[in-house]
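Quick start: read one record
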Amino acid sequence: MHGRDGSVKIPVGEVTLNVRCTGSGTPVLLLHGFPDSLSLWRELTPRLAAAGYLVIAPDLRGFGESDAPAGRTHYAMDRILGDLSGLLAALGVTGPVHVMGHDWGAAVAWCLAMGRPELFRTSVTISVGHPREYALAGLEQRRKGGYTIFWQLPGIAESSLSRNDFAGLRHWLRDHPDAGACVRDMSRPGRLTAGLNWYRANFASVMFGSWPPCRVPTLGIWSSRDHCLAEDQMTKSSRRMAAPWRYERIDGAAHWLPLEQPARVADLAIDWFRHSAPHS
């Protein structure tokens, strides 16, 4: 079954995921965050494909045109990781791949790299550092990330974000180049709750879980005008590495780097893919 803009629907366990595959070559798995969809990568995808990569961009469960099961337990990290390992298997991808994630997608990339390192050549994490370093970050992160506590409240958070034509969500999305599309997606029945369930199902378990050292070479990218994330949670991620690590700061850009600075992000990622893993 086909979705919009050339995507396809692929059953993976309990859900069907909407996925777009572009190009050919070594696979790169792209993981978006809240409240985005695979369209977050529309500026990066042609750049990666032109560089000789097979770009695999799914709508993660709860987002875009993928299924959004009801109930927070359906958004626990182990189920999300299962979706992605199952997706690679369903696509016939047998060798290790590169992974790149933004926002929650970056958190998923960290968890995949630590939980299933054999699946990955390299990782690129945009905006979000290692989950434990996020938890230990200083006052700036606590101030910027205070919304994640409020979003734990079922019903109350939904009401606050959606009233007055989603004025609360629009304010949170104030730096997003495509905020209107995100609001339209989140205004569909059950979709705002599905997105918030990512925070509710994983907030404590991911940040305070017992994670092994990361053995996948990782590039961390952070932007100086990010209103959600502080720099220290990214830079201190180096302490969690048992593989090569590199940090890149992009000044003057806000949270949604794949849309704001696609050429810069693509250049950094391609360089990392080519020089940080053999046969990439």
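The first helix runs from residue 45 to 50.
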